[in-house]
Specification:
Layout lengths: L3 E3 L2 E3 L1 E2 L6 E2 L1 H4 L18 H19 L3 H18 L9 H18 L21 H20 L2 H11 L4 H8 L3 H20 L3
Antiparallel strand pairs: 1-2, 3-4
Helix pairs in contact: 2-3, 2-4, 3-4, 6-8
């Protein structure tokens, strides 16, 4: 078994023929040519995808899975799913949208197989330093923890909409990813926001 650490992740990809595990760096060029930024269907090497989109994948996995061990498993599955899906990327959407769609689909498949009580998980370290004092930081962390816990309690259709909105995708991109009409998206988002508001007011 060999491994590679990129952007804080240790990735293992199975060799399709032998069943052995191979280094991401060795296999990254298999699904896509080197170079490129996703435009014109040319995607960058997999290690660059990990560096650029690893935080996005980590946040999506955290939004769906509270248990740290299971969340790590889900993250690995998402990376593998992205690696396997890259040959089908045709630049009809941005690479970020493509990866988010794969991550969402894999996360939904993963959590539907889990029968557990929801549990709180640690939040990731902030990507950027801030100037909050300890009291303000504690309040902010508590609010983020409550939002994350409440998001995990939403029905899956509502949860995926909220996650994508929080990740900054436009409504048009979300509707395309989920393959639903804009009015259906608006209704689902409205219900998700109302449910979140209720849970947060009740202390999640």
């Amino acid at each position: 078994m060999s491994a590679r650490r990129d952007a804080g992740f240790i990735l293992y990809l199975p060799a399709e023929a032998s069943g052995k595990r191979v280094d991401v760096q060795q296999s990254a060029s298999a699904p896509a040519p080197p170079g490129g930024d996703g435009k014109n269907g040319v995607v960058p090497p997999f290690e660059r995808i990990v560096a650029d989109y690893g935080p996005l994948i980590s946040r999506i996995a955290m939004s769906y899975e509270a248990d740290p061990t299971l969340r790590e498993d889900l993250t690995q599955q998402i990376f593998l799913a992205v690696w396997q899906a890259l040959p089908s990327f045709r630049a009809d959407s941005s690479l970020k949208t493509f990866i988010a769609r794969v991550a969402q689909n894999r996360s939904i498949s993963f959590v539907t197989k889990q029968v557990r009580q929801p549990r709180l998980a640690e939040l990731p370290e902030k990507l950027e330093a801030d100037t909050l004092n300890p009291e303000e930081e504690a309040i902010e962390m508590n609010e983020r923890e409550m939002l994350l816990a409440a998001t995990r309690r939403l029905p899956l259709p509502q949860r995926e909409v909220i996650i994508l909105v929080l990740e900054g995708f436009s409504y048009a991109e979300i509707a395309e990813m989920l393959q639903i009409a804009p009015n259906a998206l608006a209704l689902r988002l409205s219900r998700a926001k109302a449910a979140l508001k209720t849970m947060l007011e009740q202390g999640a």
